[in-house]
Design goal:
Largest interface: A-B, 33 and 25 residues
Radius of gyration of chain B: 16 Å
Oligomer: heterodimer
Number of strands of chain A: 3
Number of strands of chain B: 0
Helix content of chain A: 55-70%
Number of domains of chain A: 1
């Protein structure tokens, strides 16, 4: 069986002019300099207001109109259906079947980046939202009234999405993990999982309402929506408009469990990067312990990987909570819970940076497949050549190993500087005294330096 | 029983911890100094 390429492990360290660890020192210096530059020159909060400017009424009306929403929803349902069909009826080879690349590369990696630039582009194409809204409209037409829903438990917040996010990555990297491959999942299993998830999502939408579930529990809406808060465009009061980039992020974490979503994002990416690198020896040792309990080798491997994935979640959460706890020691600090939720959005750029750093090369390589041979032969059975590109291949020379490393370093440094900026801005809003606000951010600087060095360490080991 | 610490044998990880220690050390030092004042 063949697999998707080992794309985030293609960097050869010997090409670099200085040792990889020196980049961690350089990145830390950039963060420290950025911190003091913010302290000196950024004395009033700038992201607490959206600076909303609506687009032309006609343009906004047409883009948000019901026919346009229906069209986008139809496109989403069609593409989802094609991918599921390919998974169920196509080849078992993950690299030749459209389903895996479409789900785990094009959508899972593509939407976060596009959303972070433009805004919530997934929302109109969300197939489950489209079906849910259609069902709601049908109910209204037949029953003559809106369907009644249960009240969503407030304390549950976004926890279902956080757990779901870990489950998606678990499916990809642990259930489908096959030793050193990016996505080794059986396309048939991926399609079945997509169908099971569809049933679950539509049931939850029926219980709690389409928009309520998309805002809190639907994994992909919450995950892509989180990144969209960094973006330039948004919808307010039924009108499309522009806003100050990053400004909407500050209002994202007001729902309980939001911090868990962004921590799960960083942790799952870290685990995927460390699984075959930094944690490899440790995982092998724990696997031997678990094997002594008498479980089968497959169960043992999955159980051990699951333990390490949860440890990653706990570790990332602990670093963040230590930073928050440190802020609490500064005079006039708000309550701990306010700080915990109030600074969660500062991790969003870091989650994006981790995603870009770990999967940038995979995305560039695999999208060549997506738009050539997978598009022409979605089932991978050599039975179709829809666009005449079925015999094309991936050009791995399009990126050099050194270029990949520099993109990884730039993404990590850029993401953490943005995180630092958001944290500084929020501190100015929370503390009445400018000096105290700056002092509180020493702790977030420590969090950012930790995540930067940890991220670069993971990349350097997995790529060595 | 062998502890799962084999990865620590790759001693290069120390270089990635040094910047974190410097920053945390700086915070602790400045906090103590301010409290004494």
């Amino acid at each position: 069986m063949s697999f998707l390429p080992l794309a985030h492990a293609l960097v050869a360290r010997q090409d670099l002019p200085v040792p990889a660890w020196l980049f961690a020192w350089g990145a830390s210096i950039v963060l420290i300099v950025s911190f003091f530059a913010l302290a000196a020159g950024w004395r009033k909060p700038r992201f607490e207001q959206l600076h909303w400017r609506p687009l032309a009424a006609g343009l906004s009306r047409s883009l948000l109109s019901t026919p346009m929403q229906a069209l986008c929803g139809l496109v989403g349902v069609f593409l989802f259906g094609v991918a599921v069909y390919a998974g169920l009826h196509g080849t078992e080879a993950p690299d030749r079947n459209l389903a895996l690349t479409f789900f785990f590369v094009t959508c899972w990696l593509g939407f976060p980046v596009v959303s972070a630039i433009l805004g919530d582009v997934f929302r109109p194409f969300n197939p489950w939202r489209a079906v849910g809204r259609l069902a709601g409209s049908g109910f209204r037409a037949i029953a003559g009234e809106r369907s009644a829903h249960l009240t969503y438990p407030e304390r549950l917040g976004r926890w279902p999405a956080a757990i779901g996010l870990l489950a998606v990555v678990w499916l990809e990297t642990i259930y489908g993990g096959s030793g050193g491959v990016a996505v080794g999942l059986d396309p048939h299993a991926a399609a079945e999982a997509a169908l099971v998830y569809s049933g679950y999502t539509l049931a939850m939408m029926a219980l709690f309402g389409v928009e309520e579930w998309c805002e809190r529990g639907e994994v992909f809406s919450v995950y892509f929506g989180m990144f969209s808060r960094l973006g330039y465009f948004g919808v307010s009061d039924g009108r499309l408009g522009r806003r100050r980039p990053l400004a909407a992020a500050g209002r994202w974490a007001t729902i309980p469990g939001s911090a868990a979503v962004v921590i799960a994002s960083i942790a799952s990416t870290s685990f995927d990067g460390a699984q075959e690198g930094a944690f490899k020896d440790a995982i092998e040792t724990v696997t031997e312990w678990v094997a002594e309990l008498g479980a089968s080798s497959l169960t043992t491997a999955r159980l051990t990987d699951t333990i390490f994935m949860l440890l990653c979640f706990a570790g990332v959460g602990l670093v963040y909570l230590l930073g928050v706890r440190g802020m609490r020691t500064v005079r006039n600090a708000p309550p701990l819970a306010t700080l915990r939720d109030g600074f969660a959005h500062t991790l969003i750029p870091i989650a994006l940076a981790y995603l870009v750093a770990h999967y940038f090369s995979l995305f560039v390589f695999q999208e060549q497949a997506q738009f050539t041979y997978l598009l022409s032969d979605p089932l991978g059975t050599a039975s179709t050549d829809l666009f005449g590109t079925a015999s094309s291949g991936i050009d791995f020379k399009v990126l050099s190993s050194t270029a990949i490393w520099y993109v990884q370093v730039a993404a990590l440094v850029g993401g953490h500087v943005l995180g630092l900026t958001l944290a500084h801005d929020r501190a100015l809003a929370y503390w009445p005294n400018y000096r105290q606000a700056t002092r509180s951010q020493y702790w977030m600087l420590a969090v950012m330096v930790t995540f930067t060095c940890f991220g670069l360490y993971l990349l350097s080991v997995s790529n060595a | 029983m062998t502890l799962p610490l084999a990865h620590l044998g790759h001693w290069l990880w120390i270089f990635y911890v040094v910047p974190v220690l410097i920053v945390v050390g700086g915070i602790v030092y400045s906090t103590i100094r301010e409290r004494r004042r």
